[in-house]
Design a protein that fits this description.
The complex is a heterodimer of chains A (226) and B (305). By secondary structure, chain A is an alpha/beta fold. Helices cover 35% and strands 26% of the residues of chain A. In chain B, helix 1 crosses helix 9 and helix 7 crosses helix 11. The chains are: A alpha/beta (226), B alpha+beta (305).
């Protein structure tokens, strides 16, 4: 599903973000990527969605060679990937319903599909009753659940979560993590970048640990050790 | 095809809803664009005014060619035709001896002495003449030279050009100055107005740069992101042009009498009403082009994600 083959990344300003990194993530896995800020977590995620290109080595995601994509292929790749962020990144001028529907609108779904799928996925994250609210009237946890709903609605095969609980309190954190586990059980590959020790230790799933751009540990039932 | 239609519908809907939900921002942008369009309208009206002032000046300037008494009318008419054929000539009016006499009598009908002395004379003392108007007063010189050097020089008794030469040349200079100054002011004002409008739109887009990035990450194509902004830009232009036209009504209604007083009976308000549709279309096109094109240019850099 996702293959990193001897990948190095040096940014234009000379920073070496990744140094000869190789790993493979299989379909349906739940993988956490841990490491301190600046140790390459974000770079790995950016390479997966084609926002950056590797300096050396190759990155394959869902059969696409990310280092060599046309505009159209990039578009198709991003349709396969749902993404959530620490700062939620909801569209402030759209309601909860419209934020989620937007993903389907851009992918060219019919009105009928939108009317069926959006309430279904809002129900999954438990926010159907807030469908007509605007993001600024929601709590942090609710915003992140809207973001998850948006990431899920187009049925991506991969869900990438970049510090999704970084700005949430512990109660909301567990809501979000439980949701991610549920999504993983429903069949999606989930990649979670975080430095929340409790979350990693509770999950008891595969953990890839980064230190200064190198993988120092890759364990099937990993714990947070730095 | 169905897919494109659905997308267009969604883009339009999003654009309209953004326009309404961004209430204050839309109001501010429309206000600035309205001011810009007002400048355009002002320049449009000014050019109409200047043109009619110029035409009025030009119409006052003519040169009369008086013809010797024994000239045959057929020769005069031939000369008239030759003059009309010149590219510099706008019109040539033939005033026959009888016409000249009639005009003269009419002009002096209250003056007993003149009328009496005319009656005493046995024959008409006045000469026939051709009144020439040039397309541009500076061209009279060429026309006069043509007459003096050509086949007609023997039948010409007098050309009143040299008496009026100075004033004619001054009017010519005045007209070309009015044109030059008007043109310069128009260009300067237009550039300023466009820069202000474009910068306003740039700021509007800047406030939405995060949203543009989010849309791209969620998988929207460039045109799907751009679309609603273009629709919004179109609405800015549309609403601004309407506001401008509506505001222009009272402004012109009250200023028109003053303009009329000082500038040879030009009724700006009537002109505005007669040409309302075309004026509105011009403003609409200018507004929409600034609004939509401005948005596209301003957002280009935020699309690269």
């Amino acid at each position: 599903m996702i293959i990193f083959d001897k990948v190095s990344k040096v940014y234009k300003n000379g920073t070496q973000a990744l140094d000869n990194v190789s790993f493979e993530i299989k379909k349906g896995e739940f993988v956490s990527i841990v490491g301190q800020s600046g140790y390459g977590k974000s770079t790995i995620l950016k390479l997966m969605i084609g926002e950056e290109k590797p300096t050396e080595g190759r990155v394959f995601v869902s059969g696409y060679d990310v280092s060599d994509l046309t505009e159209k292929e990039l578009h198709q790749l991003r349709k396969e990937i749902g993404m959530i962020f620490q700062d939620f990144r909801l569209l402030p001028k759209k309601t909860v319903y419209e934020n989620v529907a937007f993903t389907l609108e851009v992918s060219g779904a019919t009105n009928k599909e939108i009317e069926e799928d959006v309430p279904q996925v809002l129900n999954l994250v438990g926010l159907l009753h807030k469908a007509d609210k605007f993001p600024n009237s929601l709590s942090g946890g609710e915003k992140q659940r809207v973001a998850i709903a948006r990431a899920l609605v187009d049925r991506p095969s991969i869900l990438i979560a970049d510090e999704p609980t970084g700005s949430l309190d512990s109660l909301n954190t567990w809501d979000v993590i439980r949701l991610l586990l549920k999504i993983n059980e429903l069949g999606a590959t989930v990649i979670l970048a975080t430095h929340n020790r409790e979350v990693i230790n509770m999950l008891n799933k595969r953990v890839i640990t980064l230190d200064r751009g190198k993988i120092i540990r890759d364990e099937q039932k990993g714990r947070y050790i730095l | 095809m169905q897919h494109i239609l659905t997308s267009l519908k969604r883009i339009t809907k999003t654009g309209v809803s953004n326009f309404i939900r961004n209430g204050w921002l839309s109001t501010a942008t429309v206000s600035i664009l309205t001011i810009t369009l007002f400048v355009v309208l002002f320049l449009l009206m000014m050019s109409v005014l200047t043109e009619s002032v110029i035409i009025n000046l030009q119409n006052r300037v003519d040169v009369s060619v008086y013809l010797k008494k024994d000239t045959k009318e057929s020769d005069i008419l031939k000369m008239q035709n030759d003059l009309i054929a010149l590219s510099e000539v706008k019109s040539v009016d033939y005033v026959s001896e009888d016409d000249a006499l009639m005009e003269f009598r009419e002009k002096h009908k209250d003056n007993e002495i003149i009328i009496q002395s005319l009656d005493v004379l046995e024959e008409n003392p006045l000469e026939a003449s051709l009144n020439i108007k040039a397309k541009d007063p500076s061209q009279f010189k060429t026309i006069v030279e043509f007459l003096e050097s050509g086949q007609y020089k023997d039948i010409i008794s007098k050309i009143n050009y040299y008496e009026n030469q100075e004033i004619i040349e001054k009017i010519g200079v005045l007209i070309s100055s009015i044109r030059k100054i008007g043109f310069t002011i128009s260009i300067a004002l237009t550039i300023v107005a466009f820069l202000v409008a474009f910068n306003t739109i740039r700021i509007t887009i800047y406030t939405m740069k995060d949203e543009i990035g989010i849309m791209k990450l969620v998988g929207a194509t460039n045109w799907f992101v751009r679309g609603p902004f273009v629709v919004e830009g179109f609405l800015y232009g549309f609403v601004s042009s309407l506001v401008t036209v509506i505001l222009a009504f009272p402004v012109l209604y009250f200023s028109s009498p003053f303009i009329k007083k000082y500038f040879y009976d030009i009724d700006m308000f009537a002109y505005f009403q007669e040409n309302l549709v075309i004026i509105w279309i011009i403003l609409l096109v200018v507004g929409v082009v600034i609004g939509a094109l401005g948005s596209i240019i301003a957002m280009q850099r935020y699309l690269k994600i």
